[in-house]
Structures are given as C-alpha cells and as structure tokens.
C-alpha cells in the first residue's frame, strides 16, 4: 500500500486521541509509518465491541443496584480487567478478589484494601464506596 492509500475513514471512535500506525511505501519505495484515523470495517468492529462493553457495564450496574455484586465488578470491567489481572495488580489471590465482588464482603473491607482498589482503578475511595 502506498502512503496516500492508507485509509482515513474517521468516525471519531477514538475521540481524536489515538491513531493506528500502518506501514506504507513512500515515493522512493521505502517503508514508512503512516498514522490512520480508521478504516470502515475496523470502525464497525470497534463500534460493535464498545456497544457490547457498554451493555455489559449496564448489566453489572443493575446487578450492583439489586445487591448481587459489589462496585468492584463495575470498575474491573470498565478497566477491561478480569479477576486474574485484578488479583495480580493487587497482589492478592483470585479467590480473595472473587470474595470482594460479593456485597457483604465488600462492605467489610478496610480502608487500606479499598485504597488499593481505588488506586488500581484510578478513582477515589469515596467513588468506590458510594457507587451509584
């Protein structure tokens, strides 16, 4: 692909903050890096992926409201983490993180543990404790 053929189908999915690097040929036939704003098939796939993520977050939010999950579940998914990744970030066992996903166990967490979760999620302890 030549430099001027790199797709630039901008749908502002990445809010202008990111671009995808592609390799293309310049006028001399050398490979160079060219930033692309997007490509329609990729944009469609990204939209579908974000819709799925947002749908999952909405389901988790409803489960938190009904008392089935703790706010940790929401922030874990919002940060695209799973139990294994979160446990590693906290230096905890997976079974401990699973316990903290239960509202009763979450309510009994001390400030130090809440602070660790807040730091990993890049939020305040108050945002974690008073999730709405």
Q: How many beta-strand elements? A: 2
* N→C terminal distance: 49 Å
Helix-strand string: EEHHHHHHH
CATH class of the largest domain: Mainly Alpha
Oligomerization status of the protein chains: single chain
Rg, please?
21 Å
**What proportion of the residues form beta strands (DSSP E)?**
5-15%
Describe this structure in words.
This protein is mainly alpha-helical. The chain has 2 domains: 3-38, no CATH class; 57-129, lambda repressor-like DNA-binding domains (434 Repressor (Amino-terminal Domain), Orthogonal Bundle), CATH 1.10.260. Helices cover 53% and strands 9% of the residues. The protein has helices spanning 40-65, 71-78, 83-90, 94-100, 103-107, 111-121, 125-129, and strands at 20-25, 31-36. A two-stranded antiparallel ribbon has the order 1-2. A hairpin with a 5-residue loop joins strand 1 (20-25) and strand 2. Helix 3 crosses helix 4. The longest helix has 26 residues, at 40-65. The model has no long low-confidence stretch (mean pLDDT 91).
């Amino acid at each position: 692909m030549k430099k001027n053929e790199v797709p630039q189908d901008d749908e502002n999915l990445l809010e202008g903050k990111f671009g995808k690097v592609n390799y293309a040929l310049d006028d001399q036939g050398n490979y160079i890096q060219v930033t692309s704003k997007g490509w329609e098939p990729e944009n469609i796939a990204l939209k579908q992926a974000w819709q799925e993520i947002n749908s999952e977050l909405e389901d988790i939010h409803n489960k938190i409201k009904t008392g089935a999950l703790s706010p940790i579940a929401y922030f874990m998914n919002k940060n695209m983490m799973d139990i294994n990744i979160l446990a590693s970030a906290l230096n905890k066992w997976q079974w401990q993180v699973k316990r903290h996903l239960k509202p009763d166990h979450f309510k009994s967490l001390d400030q130090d543990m809440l602070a660790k979760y807040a730091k990993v999620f890049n939020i305040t302890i108050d945002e974690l404790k008073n999730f709405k």
